[in-house]
Amino acid sequence: MLLSCQDSPLFLYINQSIYISEFKKLQAAMDFQSEFSWLELEELHAPTQSFAAVVGQRYCFPNSAQYRLENEILSKSWIITEANGEVVFRVRGKKVDWYKSKRELVDENGKVVVYMEEKPWTIKNVWKAYSPGESEALFTLKSLSAFTCKPKVNIFLASNTAQKKPDYTIEGSFLAKKCLIYFGEELVTEVTREASLKNILITKSIFNVIIHPGVDVAFIFSIIIIMDKIYVHDD
After folding, report:
1. For a disulfide at 64, which of 44, 95, 145, 217, Cβ 3.0-4.6 Å?
2. CATH topology of domain 5-231
3. pLDDT (tens digit, 9 = 90+) per residue, 178-222?
């Protein structure tokens, strides 16, 4: 009796290899969770140092808050909601041309808050973010490598023209499970990715975020969207 294509040993081997690869990604995500201790919201206090607003003072709040960032399948668009499910921001994303990408963070009224653009032809992944209509960047994000799930990312604010020491850094495993955003040595944001096997297979990203008191939330959302573009949805 002839075997169908799907019953052939070669097909079964290839299919099994794909699922083993995806399972290893998911297992790495689960194992990584133990590397950090998750802070409860009620344990968060006022920051030990004041943070300058990056996008705008109206996006800095006195209390910590939880948010959820979720991309639309087969789309570069995102929805950002508060813990109660209320939509507070959206992200519009499209390719400008074949060699660079851009993203736009918009508020609930559809007004552009931050414009993000990839700098082409660089060895490092370099993105710049701008206020609408402005030519001076709000911040510059430099990723030292896009070929690892544990990123080395530095963020330089507009005032840091020398760029010898970053203002913000990102540590952890963005692709797998969790990463932390620091201002100097102070933890300001915790990001966890819902890295289920289903989400990996359909290339869906869901991030749960805790932003600490006084931190510019629009700035943080812009960082997360850029990071997802570099490490997860490099399209």
Report:
1. 44
2. Porin (2.40.160)
3. 889 999 999 999 998 876 555 555 456 788 999 999 999 999 999
